Amino acid sequence: MRPLHAEIDLSALSHNLAVARYAAPHTRMLAVIKANGYGHGLEAVASSLAHADGLAVSCIGEALALRAAGVNQRIVLLEGFFDASELPEIDRWQLECVIHQENQLQALLTYQPHRPLPVWIKINTGMNRLGFRPEETRRVWNALAVHPRIASPVRLMTHLACADELDNPATLRQYQLFQQCTHGLAAESSLANSAGILGWQERCRWPDPHAQWARPGLMLYGVPPFAGASAQLRPAMRLRSAIIQVNPCHQGEAVGYGGAWTCPQDMPIGVVAAGYGDGYPRHAAAGTPVWVNGHIVPLVGRVSMDMITVDLRPAPHTRVGDPVELWGESVPVTEVARHANTIAYTLLTGVTPRVRRIYTGHAPDKFTRQPGAPHV
Fold first, then answer.
1. Are 359 and 10 in contact, with CB atoms under 8 Å apart?
2. Assuming Cys at both sites, which of 23, 70, 99, 334 could form a disulfide with 367, CB separation 3.0 to 4.6 Å?
3. Catalytic residue among 22, 111, 257, 280, which?
4. Is 34 annotated as catalytic?
């Protein structure tokens, strides 16, 4: 069996949620598990976060997969519904939708659900991606708050665009604008993402953005949302493989496609079973750190689809079969991302389906499928 696998520590997810609660002790936690639980496995992540106050996904497909797995928690659709034809399923499976534009509002006002639908209103306070304009907030909220088929309370949210830049004044501007346009509305609110949760704790440069609900995402997987974060997060994923060949190469010999890297001296080159076909970044530069059996060695040559090559001079006694960590406890995923000129989100969510996920650590019992649950 190919040695590459992603080892997922389920107890780390629970630990990181506890860190979020410690940072915002009076705030309910809506755990963001979209994009297959940031690449960690949707159902497994949900089982580990069963004690969260709710789960947030991108779309109805992710939500139905959770319901099919027996997840009974509150599930919020962060992009709401894309067409009114989705509303019967949202109603049936008791999902909560975020609305951000007029067509969604009008569809809700005319739909007749079996029970009042829980709704969140997204306000565009500066991200300029999704959301109603601030001046539309009261009109939209009033239309939903008095509607007999909309559950009370109607909740409000916005998204902080620059919270990972602790000195950026945009966060304070967004916070103030949100407070202005929602003042006096009897509504629960959600502003803080991972960077908002930990950024306020680190610097207190802006008013407490935690409100009634926070939406931790990246931090749940053990990745700090900005450099220098002091929170004691534990990485949930270790991408691991093994050395599958050791080549004694001579000075001047080229390694890999295009001969992009040349041996400066006689030296051992290790071949690792991992490549861009698995989600390892194609553009990782020479020098990207790789952990090999207790030693940090540099990546050399171009990343290929199924393999990478490493300079074994720092670990000259390496043999075939020795363990390798591409990222995890010994090599932070943020460091690999930096060498590849990308971000940790891209690496975690980009781990491909052919990579086996092996789950360790304690998590609540696996959910059982509900009778009549959707087949997805």
1. yes
2. 70
3. 257
4. yes
